[in-house]
Design a protein that fits this description.
Length: 380
């Protein structure tokens, strides 16, 4: 029988294949190389692989051993966030082992998960499956979640339990917030700075918008509360701003990117309505100067469907099912009719950061978890 490379080799190989997702097309590399590599390894283990195109140079993968309903789905995304090489001390595009950690872009979020899953499965006898075992890897989780949306529409299966292997330090998450990101652009009128009346300063108008949004941020924190969450209210973050080009030119254009995180039970139109209301102050004073749009489709909040498996996993791990403030692909996997837990090795604190790493002490327990879940859902 053909063999997979070692765990460390697979981990390293996945990091060397860039798969950056970004709303800026100049930074986006597509995820095809990673998906094709995963497809090859899944086939080595005897899985039947289906690839689904998701736009240019992007693919989803699902791999199946066995068929029919039920069983276990091990799911995750094959893309990473963009990186700023100058802020890394380690090579982002290869695995470096140091201080009991495996460093690299995607080490924990979340290419490393796939290497661990494959290594864990290679160590098992999967010839007598009683229920199907599946692996899914998606495109564009870090931006639009388009991959998971398409997979949920097309995948012809309904697992009993899906584990989304995002970095939760191996604690099961059964509920999380949604995610909305918006770009707000003010178009003023440029002119020579010596005569303020010669233009309309977009940065000054944006100053008004920023003030209104900071008020909205406080109102959200006062008005809504869900005690399941460590941050119990919907958040609003001012994330990126760019405006103007020269000290002696009136700023003609200014753009702001924000995100908002709705609690489960809050509708996305409800939160958008509050945003629109705040933006209307500047719109009224300067008709036509403000435009806003979603940077990508909003991602819904998540509450796992009921069923027996969440509690069983919780008992097995000796950990309560918890909540997360961030968003994942879990709601799209839940739409397949599956119970879903977000549960994987590594920490969200290292995700999206320079010198991202997976602590090596997560590796053994993560592989045992995968093997334990496969035994419980597919072999008994
Ligand atoms: C886990 C994580 O960082 N998820 C991302 C998803 C963004 C999707 N638009 C977040 O919560 O910001
Ligand atoms: Zn992730
Ligand atoms: Zn991420």
């Amino acid at each position: 029988m053909q063999k997979l490379p070692s765990l460390a080799q697979m981990f390293n190989r996945l990091l060397t294949l860039p798969s950056v997702s970004a709303t800026d097309p100049a930074l986006d590399t597509g995820n095809k190389a990673v998906i094709e590599q995963l497809a090859q390894w899944c086939e080595t283990l005897g899985f039947k692989v289906t690839l689904q195109p998701v736009g240019h140079n992007k693919l989803n993968l699902w791999a199946e051993l066995g068929s029919g309903p039920g069983g276990l789905l091990l799911a995750g995304h094959a893309d990473t966030v963009p990186f700023d090489e100058g802020r890394w001390n380690k090579n982002p595009l290869a695995m470096t082992e140091a201080d009991g950690k495996w460093f690299g872009l995607g080490a924990t979020d979340m290419k490393g998960f796939f290497a661990l899953v494959l290594a864990a499965l290679e160590g098992m006898d999967l010839s007598q499956l009683k229920a199907p075992l599946r692996i899914a890897a998606t495109a564009d989780e870090e931006t639009s979640m388009e991959g998971a949306r398409r997979l949920a529409e097309a995948a012809p299966f309904s697992p009993a339990l899906t584990l989304v292997g995002e970095p939760t330090e191996l604690k099961p998450i059964g509920r999380h917030k949604g995610h909305i990101s918006a770009g707000i652009r003010i178009t003023g009128k440029s002119g020579h700075s010596s005569d303020p009346g010669a233009g309309l300063n977009a940065m000054e108008l944006m100053h008004g918008v920023l003030g209104d949004l900071i008020v909205l941020k406080q109102e959200l924190a006062e008005r809504y509360c869900d005690h399941h969450f460590a941050v119990p209210y919907p958040t609003l973050n001012l994330g990126h701003i760019h405006g103007g080009d020269n000290a002696n030119r009136i700023c003609g254009c200014c753009e702001l990117h924000i995100d908002m995180r709705p609690l489960p039970g809050m509708s996305i139109p409800e939160l958008e309505g509050l945003l629109k209301e705040k933006l209307s102050n500047v719109e009224k004073a300067h008709p036509g100067a403000l435009q806003w749009q979603h940077l990508h489709e909003p991602c819904p909040a998540f509450v796992s469907p009921d069923g027996p498996w969440k509690d069983e996993v919780s008992r097995l791990l000796g950990q309560p099912v918890e909540t997360a403030n961030y968003a994942t692909e879990a709601p799209f996997f839940a739409s397949l009719g599956s119970e879903v837990l977000v549960l994987g090795p590594g920490s969200i604190r290292q995700a999206h950061q320079p010198d991202e790493f997976m602590a090596m002490d997560q590796i053994g327990p993560a592989m045992e978890l995968v093997q334990g879940m496969v035994k419980r859902l597919c072999l008994t």
